[in-house]
Amino acid sequence: MAPKRSSNVITPDKPMKIVIIGGSNTGLMNGIILKRLGHNVHILEQNTKSERSDLAAGITTHPEFDEFMNVHDLVKESWFVPSPGIQWLNKDAAVTREAKRPLKMTSWEVTYHRLRANFDGFTSSFCPDPPARGEKDGSATFDLGKRVTAISELEDGVQISFEDLLDGNEQGTISADLIILADGANSTLRGTLFPGIERAYAGYVAFRGTVPEAEVSEAAKKAFDPKLTYFCFKNNYILLYIIPGSDGSLEPGQRRYNWVWYHPLAAGSPDFTEIMTDTSGTLHRNTLPAGGMNPKAWSKYAEIAKEQMCTPFADVVAKTTQPFITAISDLACPRAVAVNGRVLITGEALNLVRPHMALSTTASAKQALLLEKVFRGELSVQMWEKKVLHEGRISALKTNAFGTFFLYGALSAVGWVAKLVGAMLGGMLPFSSLPAVPQ
């Protein structure tokens, strides 16, 4: 019998069995909302350990993420370092421009463990007292070591095939009413639904690193504290802000200074190949994680920092013992719904935007909050898709214009700004003719 075709898969008034593929922050935010609405949520996470270290160090949040935490985070303790605004320094470390804009700074590690505590009561050093399960909560399962290999439609649902990495790669299956795809920018499952959608390198990399607050000089602290600080130089720019300590501490003296340095490197060039090759000789396509940087390859960039950056920034770069690097790239999936409405695509599996404006985590929060409206019967899944696709495009154009301006100047950013204005004026029009839903 052919699979049942339904355009109204989501049932707000009936508990659903929902599988979320990917247990990082995007998957967890969706999972928290749905289990508190009474649905039974099963997260399949490929990683084999619940305890996780920082994947991208610092995170700057925006109002939508703050809204998510205000409503759905039941842990009482604070999770961020406040910043009163933004400043720009010149080569002499003098402030040339300021903007008063309160910001909240945190880290991937703090956010992940906080969300885990809210989803399935996971206890960690970050959240030793997770909130109790609510009376109306559905079940919440966080399943480690599950590498999903395929999804297929059934008559009244979907089936997920996986390998159990904790049990000798044993094959298994699980059925569900709905799948939420939240397995990141390198999603192989998205690739099966949308062949040819791949990351496109933007022509520059981001060096990243952190330094314990106790190791930063008093002069550098005076220049930075407590603002988000920028310094631009010769088609490069670097920014810095304070984040919680490696143990989640928000106490002054125990926090970390987190920096991100954007630097142009041509794809396939000897310099790109050299810096993306780790100490074992492995060439990384997208991210070379902390601890793997080849000291000899890094030395030339450490020298650039010393010679061309203002002293406070050069100081923190020099004191970073384990820098890491990400090749900046773009990716946009043409649809957020697949398999007759049985699969929803979220987070960086849907849109990978450049990190200049720190919009990724907030975008996932916004998608989850909109999905909550769908499950409450206040918004159709078709309108959810149009909204997340449109906002993904706006975010990409906005952050591309921002990054291009600070790297290459105002004239270079004109094209991105024009596209941004067109997309904003066009509203939903760019998505009036969506491609067919993939099966």
TrEMBL record:
SUPFAM superfamilies: FAD-linked reductases, C-terminal domain, FAD/NAD(P)-binding domain. Pfam families: FAD_binding-like (PF22607). Gene3D superfamilies: 3.30.9.60, FAD/NAD(P)-binding domain. Residues 201-330 form the 2,6-dihydroxypyridine 3-monooxygenase substrate binding domain. It comes from the Eukaryota. PANTHER family: MONOOXYGENASE-LIKE, OS06G0597600 PROTEIN. This is 2,6-dihydroxypyridine 3-monooxygenase substrate binding domain-containing protein. It comes from Cadophora malorum. The lineage of its organism: Eukaryota, Fungi, Dikarya, Ascomycota, Pezizomycotina.
